[in-house]
Amino acid sequence: MKGSVAYRSIQKRGLHIGLLPEMAAAVNPTTPITLDHDLDVLPEAGRRLTVAQYAEHVDDLAARLWAAGVRPDEHVVIYKTANADHWMLAAAVSRIGGVVVNLSPALDARTVGVLLERVGRPTLLSDGAKLDVLADVPLADLTRRVITSAGEREGAVALAGLAGAPRVKPVVRPIDEAAVITHTSGTTGIPKLVVHTPRTQGIRLLPQWRLLSLMRKKETVAINVPFVHSRMVAAMSLALLKEYPVLLMRETGPAEVAEQFVKHRPAFVEALPNSLMEWEGLADDPRAPFGSVKVFSSTFDAIHPGTMSRLLHASDRRGALFFQIYGQSEVGPAVGRAYFRHSAHKANGRCVGWAMPGGAARIRVVSRDGNPPSETNPGYIEVAWDGIAKTYFGEQERYDTNRDGQWWRTGDVGYRTRFGCLHMLDREVDMIPGVKSSLEIEDVLLSRLPELTELVVVQGPKSEPVPVICTADDTPLDLNRWRAAAAAFPQLADPVQIPQAELPRTATLKVQRLALARRFEEQPQTRA
């Protein structure tokens, strides 16, 4: 089977992650998958697999889950320590017709308890470390059964004890029924559970299949995104069907990342915006860990132009580019644009791109007040295509409030230029009176003050825009440099400096702006 044939099959029948490893093995059984850590569920498997071995492990784990009592149509919540085996276990659940519910290991016990209750007595697939986190959650009342992926726990079924269970035939879920459930970032409270179907997952591959076509050779793709995120489904599917060697990474520390990149020399890097910001310093590493990279890609959030420019200048590849995709869990990839080495630093960070070709999403901006959307009067950003998630599990009304026929309201505000570029200015809930765009201010000041490692503008207790800053090694900010850089933004209050470790973040490392703003109401702050 050729990758293009498998891809056409997915477009017709939907993407079933339980069948994907087997399908990829049929395309090329020798495609290598390299890990930067051991698999908790199969520690003997090692860190270098072929896709055929990967498919075999998924089949084995599916048999064990069946022996543990999991059956088709059953919801299986996976909440475990961050590890690449999460995606493998999700594929195993899918392979026997279960509905995968991926919960981030970053979620706290209270949030997990709320989500378990919302799902309605699912099977919980976890491990010892996370079951300790859930010690005060009444799992006996909230779950049908508990299965451990590593170790043993009283009252739970251990997958390790089910090795050698008889293999079972795959169960294919209906193309428009729930297949994988992920959750939103939770920047405004308890995350929403986003329902993806085989059809919506398959459609989302369309624009990204063409992006990977930029790579003519079968070079390594490094994937460093949360294993629980809907983005992981697309990233793994595309790389394996394209027969690209995969470097699947858990570690995000610059030292560990540099070691892996120097050793494996990836040509394509997919990572979180905040991870890429953290890695900027590697541009000066004499080993040139980014020297082999042809394409940097990020999908989760807008990224600062200065970061893109520095990474691109660290590449030795001719025509190296940074491809940014704007989207969200509910809609997948909506628009995108490429940045190049000699122009990225001059880019407007608020311009997130144009509609992508080939059956991708359509975009419109709707007025908030009856006047045409513009730079000074941003409107609601809405998306329409068949890749939009089916619903919010257990919150249909909430889903319906964002849906207007085929159009989905993203919660972001912005405008389109006369050339068609979509400019995203802010989340609607983060808008501050008298501020055109908090994100634009952040872009500008981060480019002017390289000593800043993070800058977030939030609303203070008197509705004033307060810049919260972090610096390398928490070094005190030079206020004279700040005043000179921020002179163009007289509406800003004095900056507040905090340790970067104190920034409240989501599972995808986005800053929880509302939680940060609440700090100003709950406790006095020391200005920088």
UniProtKB/TrEMBL annotation:
<keyword id="KW-0436">Ligase</keyword>
<dbReference type="Pfam" id="PF00501">
    <property type="entry name" value="AMP-binding"/>
</dbReference>
<dbReference type="InterPro" id="IPR000873">
    <property type="entry name" value="AMP-dep_synth/lig_dom"/>
</dbReference>
<feature type="domain" description="AMP-dependent synthetase/ligase">
    <location>
        <begin position="36"/>
        <end position="393"/>
    </location>
</feature>
<dbReference type="InterPro" id="IPR042099">
    <property type="entry name" value="ANL_N_sf"/>
</dbReference>
<dbReference type="InterPro" id="IPR020845">
    <property type="entry name" value="AMP-binding_CS"/>
</dbReference>
<dbReference type="GO" id="GO:0016874">
    <property type="term" value="F:ligase activity"/>
</dbReference>
<dbReference type="InterPro" id="IPR050237">
    <property type="entry name" value="ATP-dep_AMP-bd_enzyme"/>
</dbReference>
<protein>
    <submittedName>
        <fullName>Acyl--CoA ligase</fullName>
    </submittedName>
</protein>
